[in-house]
Amino acid sequence: MASGSVQLIRPARNVSGSLRLPGDKSISHRYAMLGAIAEGPTRLKNFSTGADCASTLGCLRTLGVAWDRNDDNEIVIRGEGPTLRAPASPLDCGNSGSTMRMLSGILAGQSFSSELLGDTSLSRRPMARIIEPLEQMGAKISSAEGNRPPLRITGGPLAAIHYPMPVASAQVKSSLLFAGLFARGETSVEEPVRTRDHGELALRAFGAELHRQGNQARIAGGQQLRAIEASIPGDISSAAFFLCAAALFPGSNLTITDLLMNPTRARLLDILLAMGARISVAQLEEHHGELVGTVEIEGGTVKGASVAGSDTAALIDEIPVLAAIAPYTSTGVEIRDARELRVKESDRIAAVARNLRTMGARVEELEDGLKIPGGQDLHGAEIDSEGDHRIAMAFAVAALRAREETLIHGAEAAVISYPGFFEALEGVVAR
Ligand code: S3P
Hints:
binds shikimate-3-phosphate; 4-stranded mixed sheet; about 30% helix; alpha/beta
């Protein structure tokens, strides 16, 4: 059982009210990294409050990038162009795979060596997916056994490559496009299925020219980036916990304002709609290429869902919570093509199956997913987050419909993406 803080969750009657969420984690990482290599001050309102994005900011400081946070929770990054300073100490990426993989793309183009390390969970995660293509471009990268962190990157002049990505990964795609800025020629990456496109949109927002055709993105090297001012839309992967919680109860009526609505991230809304939740979207606007809007959801009896193929890639971070509510649906949930979940912050397929069983659910664990029958009643239990933020939050949602109280052990993991999650959840739960 994970040590750390324990959170008590009591059964709820419904989930109602209004919320605005901290800035999207994926966008915050990318804006911070690009702001660091742009010319001039980049001002970012509603920057993610999560520990992962703090890891990115910490690494940037070690690389000589000045930034400060003012009273308004606005981050100002004082970019001085593409050349960073050789770090005097290793770059600590904490729990953040995004920090390690995407920053590697920028470090590959620097004329110094740097070391990137992470916590126990990150030290288990696969890095061959960035090592291979970045080495093809000309960087030298050494790693621990099995291509795991820590990484030692010796950067230098890079050459453009065309890279058909063997795994669908937005982190790898962004890493290679960032490296492409430092390469001679035009770098192109092609993904097997469409993943989130924040890297492409952010590069354009910072003034880079980037071409997209089907599942391919191309970028020419040597482009100078311009600083931006932005307000980062609310994190839709954090919203997922509240949306799934609301969907479970007749009488729920929840509004989430200023929420990221990027189509490569909003697949959960389509799934919840198909399951029978009532959802409306208003006040859609576009900021730096990203769609933002207000979402209202009313809950009720929900049907099950079947998620596979490109849906799985689009929903990758929302699958733990979708699986956690699956027993309460009328027809159950089946998830396939989700092998990637086994190499996230924890093995999320195993962690979901174990914790659902602890609550008394029947679950079939598959190599690449889960089959969870519907129409099940769960009891309160002692949940183990396994140190994984999304597992801690997903089971807080499952606990709302359990018969008795639930204890979430290792609840502090939520700070990775959403400090204040449990307080925000309490704020919208009616009992
Ligand atoms: C992310 C992409 C996804 C996701 C992660 C954040 C990103 O990972 O699971 O939480 O910001 O690009 P992969 O790109 O490895 O699938």
